[in-house]
Amino acid sequence: MRRSATLPPLPSLRAFAAVGRLLSFRKAGEELLITQSAVSHHVKQLEDYLGTALFERHGRTISLTPAGRSFLARVDAGFAAIEAGVREVRGDPSTVRVSLLPSFAANWLVPRLPRLRALNPDIVVDLDPSLETVDLGQGTADLAIRYGAPDWPGLEAECLMREAVTPVLSGNIKPLREPRDVLRHTLLLSRRETDWQVWAEACGVDLAEARTLQLVDYNLVLQAAAEGQGVAMGRLSLVRERLRTGALIAPLPVVSAPDGAAYWLLCAKGRAPSRSAAIFRQWLLAEARMFAEAA
Q: Name one GO biological process term (predicted).
């Protein structure tokens, strides 16, 4: 079969797209399951084919040239169009795969899923509760929900909802009457300690000498707080039901956290979503808006 006179070899385009997204020949090789030297060869082949440099080398780092940035946008759009065509020919699946934090799944999303099923009974939501990063570019999930600052390289991010925080604890242990009283208790920490820092700075509390207990998942933090093991920093989006039932109480000031404390809906940049993923995204954003308005 004769090769097109204007289309470069597909392996070179795939290697270029991976390097352009990751800005690393090594990481691109790991993603494509080929050696770093093979990636370099493919990119060099493409540069020779096009007659121009696509990357600038700066010691151990690289950056896209103006021509490289322009060409990467075209290549990404081309791959996205091909993926959309494949889905159209094969039939759009009804399953949407979502990678998300276990705490967000258990305390916010799962209780709302019956409303999604009532509106869209043909859509199946496959939840993957995980604390680890997920490579949406590899198709391991359609969407991801993460908590933190708006810094997600290679992904498109939409703010799902911002968070407000305040200490929460069991009503069965020594009460908190002023912010400094948290220092009389063990502070229960998850992987992310920024929530405590934001609240403490706003309320003028120095946490340097505080006793702490490091836990992995925020669900464990809330469980330990409910059992009277210490004070947790409550994310109001996730603890509202526990506050309503009295499982936890929140006697101290509430602090609206900055951009670093928000939930983000993530998808692969340049990839057209499936029909089920698009429907789930629209429903999720609507649920988040209603939740914020009710709050």
A: DNA-templated transcription
What are the structure tokens assigned to 211, written together? 């006793």
Structural domain total, the chain: 3
Q: Establish if 1 belongs to a structural domain.
A: no
Structural domain boundaries, residue 173:
164-255
Is this model's pTM higher than 0.70 or not? no
What are the pLDDT digits (tens) for 73-101?
Answer: 889 888 877 776 766 666 556 889 899 99
What is the model's pLDDT at position 33? 87
Buried (b) or exposed (e) across 143-175, using 16+ Cβ within 10 A?
bbbbbeeeebeebebeebbebbbbbbbbeebee
d(CA 29, CA 15): 8
CATH number for the domain that contains residue 264? 3.40.190.10
Tokens of 111: 């209780």
